[in-house]
Design brief:
257 residues, alpha/beta, 6-stranded mixed sheet, binds adenosine-5'-diphosphate, binds magnesium ion
Length: 257
Amino acid sequence: MGSALLCVRDLTLRFGGVHALDSVSFDVEEHAICGLIGPNGAGKSSLFNCISRLYAPSSGEILWRGQPIGTLARHRIAGLGIGRTFQNLALFGAMSVLDNVRVGSHCRTQAGLWASLLRTGAMRQEEAAVERKAMDLLRFVGLEGVAGSRADALPFGLQKRVELARALAAEPALLLLDEPAAGLNAGELDALAALVRRIRETLGTTVLVVEHHMRFLMAVSDHVVVLNFGRKLAEGSPAQVQRDPAVIEAYLGAPAS
Ligand SMILES: Nc1ncnc2c1ncn2[C@@H]1O[C@H](COP(=O)(O)OP(=O)(O)O)[C@@H](O)[C@H]1O
Ligand SMILES: [Mg+2]
């Protein structure tokens, strides 16, 4: 207890009469890939929004390396080492893929974003390093061929991958992925699962990933937390969760093969 990278403790979030989250508790161990699954409206994105301080929980606590982060300003969350992608994308559509990834580096560089965009002389060297790193990341996620394309010209699945590269540019210790597999076909799903595992293996990143897609989530996760109507329904290894009668009844409808 308390030694995990991230601890969610009795987290409750209400919108009027709706309990988006109802006393949810679980831990994410360092270097783990933790899957978060549950039907539409179960509270998965709300949980991410609480962790990244877009929403203020009604009660409960989130601990980062044992310290409560509930009172931190939102802009300090990325600086702690928590990065994320969004269910509905948050790219700069008119900017190039490369520029989108470069933006992700700016919480790690000395110069502020605006100073860098203005390209004062002293910034150029740092900018060259940022650009090299962005290209390395694009290669890492398999997007080097579209570095110069406008972000919004890419299919949805590739845009999600650009967001992933941008989140990685900030060198997060914890990466929150909200439905990264949306819109992918079976082959692309397998490639994404391999990429998420490669992120953990080569960068050492801890991952908390929301997905509807059972096969993807079970293939990629060490540990799975199941939400239903804002409550934690079950947690355990992928095999334990898939056998859990409450999970089968509430979510799977039938045992997953
Ligand atoms: N900003 C908001 N205002 C009002 N209700 C919200 C808001 N965000 C989420 N909810 C509600 O909270 C519940 C959980 O939603 P969400 O976290 O998006 O679920 P999931 O990501 O699991 O599909 C839903 O009932 C949703 O309508
Ligand atoms: Mg969601």
